[in-house]
Amino acid sequence: RKIIIINGPNLNLLGRREPEIYGYQTFEQYFEILKDKFSETVDLEYFQSNHEGALIDKIHEVGFYYDGIVLNAGAYTHTSIAIADAMAGVKTPVVEVHISNVHARESFRHHSYISKHSKGIIIGFGLRGYDFAVQTFL
Ligand code: DQA
């Protein structure tokens, strides 16, 4: 099974960015653990970009033949009709992930444009949310 984790803006700073909210681990460290954990069953890839268009290009690129997309669109979750449209336009199911519990935070984080096009949503479980999301595709 081919599964890709796509992280949006500012998630390249995980481990350094507001660690009291997002934790002290870098995503690169966590990704290695995850890749190992699922290595028997999953061909796991990782892509990160701070650019909306690059995220859309990646969704198009993988969205007709990968088995699953795990997407944390960061702040674009709350703003991007374009990413929502990209998800609506492809075949591969998407699981939406948020590291923090967005519903316990500012009200502008309560609405997601992308949830409507997600197979399911995992919110507030830290980096483990990515692990849970991958499992939903097994
Ligand atoms: C986030 C929540 C978003 O509101 C925020 O803009 C992020 C990260 C999360 O994983 O908790 O960048 O998606």
UniProtKB/TrEMBL annotation:
EC number: 4.2.1.10
Known function: Catalyzes a trans-dehydration via an enolate intermediate.
Membership in a protein family: Belongs to the type-II 3-dehydroquinase family.
Catalytic activity: 3-dehydroquinate = 3-dehydroshikimate + H2O
Transition state stabilizer (site feature) positions: R17
Pathway in which this enzyme or protein is active: Metabolic intermediate biosynthesis; chorismate biosynthesis; chorismate from D-erythrose 4-phosphate and phosphoenolpyruvate: step 3/7
HAMAP family (UniProt xref): AroQ
Active site: Y22, H98
Keywords: Amino-acid biosynthesis, Aromatic amino acid biosynthesis, Lyase
Lineage summary: Bacteria, Pseudomonadati, Bacteroidota, Cytophagia, Cytophagales
Binding site for substrate: N72, H78, D85, I99, S100, R109
Organism domain of life: Bacteria
Protein name, per record: 3-dehydroquinate dehydratase
Molecular function GO terms recorded: 3-dehydroquinate dehydratase activity
InterPro entries: DHquinase_II, DHquinase_II_CS, DHquinase_II_sf
Keyword Hydrolase on entry: no
Record note on quaternary structure: Homododecamer.
